[in-house]
Design a protein that fits this description.
Elements lengths: L10 H35 L9 H38 L6 H34 L17 H21 L6 H26 L7 H27 L2
Helix pairs in contact: 1-2, 1-6, 2-3, 3-4, 4-5, 5-6
């Protein structure tokens, strides 16, 4: 993976870093699988009504549907720091001539982490508390159920940074079938994620968000494969 055998490390370094890589990739995989489940529950099994009818109407059913919002928000909140850790470990196994790509991947992952976790934390704290106490002034612009809210604009922008990171990280993978699969899953999803912000800015309607569905199913598969690669590398040092 990522020409890791060309990197000079002591067996102890390999064991520690490959171990962190394995478990961060496993963590991303689990959180991403939770996101997939939340996506299905929120939009298919028990679909939330995103036909915005005002903050008063939204507040009346907020308590009833808050568990669905948490199902969506919590996994995404966890993915961000775990993904950043994963990119840092991948950088540690990147040959010097390709480290510009891994560093760019880390840079965009840092911006993604900072923005997206703040966005989700806002939903779990300030917005939740404001609605539960009846202080509705200003919450319309940040409500999860309002697709024209600041929350969803920040959501799209945050995942654009992640998408750019995925493109640069994906380009680092080469070699076997698993590495090639990871490469193209990252690159294709990354490109589609960048297209999403173009759609948002230009107000173009591309219909059903197939890119979101593709990401939901393929991203956890790719991080599971990365975990497998790191685990194999760890076993070679034991």
């Amino acid at each position: 993976m990522i020409e890791s055998l060309n990197i000079k490390k002591t067996p102890k370094q390999l064991l520690i870093e490959a171990g962190i890589g394995t478990w961060s990739a496993v963590g991303v995989t689990i959180a991403s699988a939770m996101f997939l489940i939340a996506l299905v529950v929120t939009f298919v099994i028990f679909p939330l009504n995103f036909n915005w009818q005002g903050i008063e109407v939204y507040a009346q059913s907020y308590t009833q549907h808050y568990w669905q919002i948490l199902m969506f928000v919590v996994p995404c909140f966890l993915i961000a720091p775990l993904y950043l850790i994963l990119t840092v470990i991948i950088h540690r196994f990147t040959p010097e001539e390709k480290q510009i790509l891994s560093l760019l991947g880390i840079v965009f992952a840092v911006v993604y982490l900072a923005q997206i976790t703040a966005n989700y934390y806002l939903q779990m704290t300030a917005i939740s508390q404001s609605i539960s106490t009846g202080l509705l002034d200003g919450t319309t612009l940040f409500a999860f159920g309002n697709l024209n809210s600041v929350f969803w604009s920040m959501e799209v922008l945050g995942y654009t940074w992640m998408s750019l990171s995925m493109i640069f990280i994906g380009l680092l993978f080469s070699g076997g079938k698993i590495e090639t699969a990871v490469k193209w899953i990252f690159v294709v999803n990354g490109i589609l994620g960048v297209v999403a912000i173009i759609q948002a800015v230009t107000h173009l309607d591309f219909g059903f968000p197939f890119s979101l569905v593709l990401f939901a199913f393929t991203f956890p598969a790719s991080t599971a494969m990365i975990a497998l690669l790191f685990n194999r590398l760890k076993k070679t040092t034991i």
